[in-house]
Amino acid sequence: MYDCAKIALNPARHFLYQTGMQSPSLRQLDIFAQMVAAGSVARCADMLGVTADEIARDIASLEMRLGYRLFEDMSGSVRLTPAGRKTAQAMTLLSQDAPEDWDETAAPAEAPPPLPQPPAPQRQTIMLAAPAPIFGHFQDALSAFEAANEDIAITLDLHVQSVTDAAAALREGRADIAYFYALEEPAGFASRYGWSEPLSLYAGAAHPLAQADSVSREDLAVTPMLALERRNPMRHIIEDALARGRVQLGAPALESDDMFAVMTALRAGTGIFAAFGALARDLGRMDGIERLRLDSQLPAIEVRQALGARAAETPAVEALAEFLFL
Fold it and tell me: Where's the LysR substrate-binding domain (predicted)?
């Protein structure tokens, strides 16, 4: 069982969350919270007064943004995947009153009261901060590390995106290990390179640029773009990379964190969309969407790891940091 603080949903049906957690849309995270509480698509749709198809679409869009599945099956009583459970706990979406052995396949109102449990042995907690898609990259490694080290619990903070976020989390003791996105090694901040994620541009298959053998910067400058919402930290990372690559896109034709809206606009030829990591991987697999063949490469986004100042005093922290690099 993963350890994490739990915070109850508020009466307005918006969960309480850290203000930095802005990558997925608030609506999608709220629906994820309600799905966890409701236990089924039909019950969640009834609670929110929308259709089951709308619930399924928002959950699928959120999973595409995160880069991993949250639920095993969307039919009948839903069951969280291990990554979904960890994400729910990291986002503090579970009820404050839910027992530690809560069964996500049943509605909270129908669950029997928990039996008294003997005090659990104290476990060392390692705080890991990372963008949600990065958690998707090493979720199996985290599970394996915890399975091999029963005295250690790993708690996630999924709102860190940039070097500024990572430095603050480590300095303030909110993280022992932090992963973040960067375009190069930050000056004055010790970190190490993990891997690079190429930045790509996508358009609908029928778009003239998708059919071109080579796309120039001049072509891009007169083509409308599709973008994430302005408050989304991922948008700023993408814009910084495009600027470094001397790419100026046309005015936004759409600004949305709803990936189904983005995909619909792409297929309709409304504009082009920049993405990297798990999101780019999934877009590249979609029918009716093509990656543009640029005349020169765009800068890649680096994923870097940094440790807190006292990591050397905690062997488990250094061991996990090394394990994640294997």
Answer: 123-324
